[in-house]
Amino acid sequence: MMSKSHIRSVLTTLIVCTYICSINAQAQGPLHGLDTTVCNPSTIPNSQTPKKPSLSETYRLTVECNIQNKNYSTDYTEYFDYQNQRAAVHQWEEGFHAYGIYNYAANEMYTVEAQTGVCTVDSLSSSSNTFLFGFKTSATNPKVGRMFSAYGALRFGNGTNEQYMGRSKIRGMQVDQWKSCLYWSSMDATMEVHWYFTAPGWGMADGKSQVPVRCTVVGNIWEVKGSTPTARKFTHTYEFSEYLTDDMAQLTTTTFETPSGVICPGRKDTKPLPTPATAFKFTSEILTPDSLTIGFIKVISKFILNSGEWYDQKMGLVRYDYVPDSQSVSPFGYGLLTQVHDFNEGIAYVIDPAVGNCTAQPIDGTGFDAKFVVGSNNMKVRIRTPAEFFYFDKTQYAYEGVKSVRGVDCDVYITQRTDWPPNTSGYKSTWEWYFAKKTWVQSTGHTYDFGMPMMLLLKADGVSWF
Ligand SMILES: *[C@@H]1O[C@H](CO)[C@@H](O)[C@H](O)[C@H]1NC(C)=O
Ligand SMILES: *[C@@H]1O[C@H](CO)[C@@H](O)[C@H](O)[C@H]1NC(C)=O
Ligand SMILES: *[C@@H]1O[C@H](CO)[C@@H](O)[C@H](O)[C@H]1NC(C)=O
Ligand SMILES: *[C@@H]1O[C@H](CO)[C@@H](O)[C@H](O)[C@H]1NC(C)=O
Questions:
Q1: Which residues form the LolA-like domain (predicted)?
Q2: Among 132, 162, 383, 394, which lies 20 to 30 A Cα-Cα from 318?
Q3: Domains of the chain by start residue, with CATH
Q4: What is the pTM of this model?
């Protein structure tokens, strides 16, 4: 098992090493400065012809990074959307898969370790991972960071002198080559960079021409060992493929969101949960993928919330219709059943509509609609409050973004609880609520203040319940 810190450092290393070097430390002490034994920018003219490639501000790109000086390779896929100020990167290295999601609007970066679902939140403005896509503030808006343009992110055509080196062939493709010399003071590194783009007229997958094919970076990084600054050589080759731009890149909101079921502790709460209504009815389909079962429940519920003295006040009614799960213990058989819970009296009426009989029994305080009254020694039950009914209580949900359920765009909220199943402790469960976005209306023409609950995804210790 890999640890969170391991994969975080892998991602940090990868992103920082991208295009330059394989360390993540900042340069310490006095800088060596430009190392002219590597190259010298003043000797490199900026070629006016041929025309340099123009880069799309929306793209997806797969990169194979070959870090020759350290004998390893790593792959990643970059998702870049300048217009909407969002970016993501997936990385595969030594059997690990991690990814970073850049949320410029919230100034947050989420690093998710894919195999374990562990997520870490960092502030983008102080993250070293902004190296890849940038974090530029402006004088007019110093608190809000923006991404680099594609030219900045790819470090090509961004104002540095680039000399045309002629036509050559890479992986069978006709390419044009440009050379530049860069010095990065943050790492005290000087490097000669060669960029290769497909030649004009060479047809590419998404119909664009002049797409990135390869970048080589060779240079020296100055490190202080003991008290002696020493040059360390590095040689990296980046092979680019599957470069798709604009609509072809198929970037969706999901590309830039943490995946379903992943909790990012400490993430900013950017959108509050809806407030539940006090009376409602709904039908819910219950899918249990582990046992391959589909069930349903129809619920009609009326909460009367006029007192803290729950059990001797009018507290509302709940009715629900259901067919018991064939794998559960059901004393009233496995046909359709109706239950009416009268919380005024604490009595559950169980009705079998086919037979026409009814059994009255105490309401189970661990049911989905009930709670034991505190201090009553589990003798008395009360109806759940609407917030308790939807498990909104005693926890802070985080807004995850917009995801699609049955073709409907939903606002998604997630949290983790340790008090479920009821009357147990020590189980961790993940609760993910999907509410249809306000722009969706029901066929009645009504938009509910509460929103339309579309799905609850509940995972607990390997058990899933939709
Ligand atoms: C990389 O492999 C080469 C050839 O096997 C070896 O000479 C070199 O020391 C290795 N470098 C590192 C950093 O392991
Ligand atoms: C690209 O150029 C812009 C404008 O000069 C600059 O702010 C930015 O830092 C440059 N990006 C890189 C990666 O050098
Ligand atoms: C209805 O009657 C049947 C047969 O006596 C019994 O098995 C069942 O539990 C009863 N159901 C209810 C809801 O009372
Ligand atoms: C709930 O938990 C309490 C204390 O652990 C126990 O006494 C009671 O029997 C439990 N009730 C049910 C319905 O499991």
A1: 48-242, 259-447
A2: 394
A3: 4-256 (2.50.20), 306-384 (no CATH)
A4: 0.80
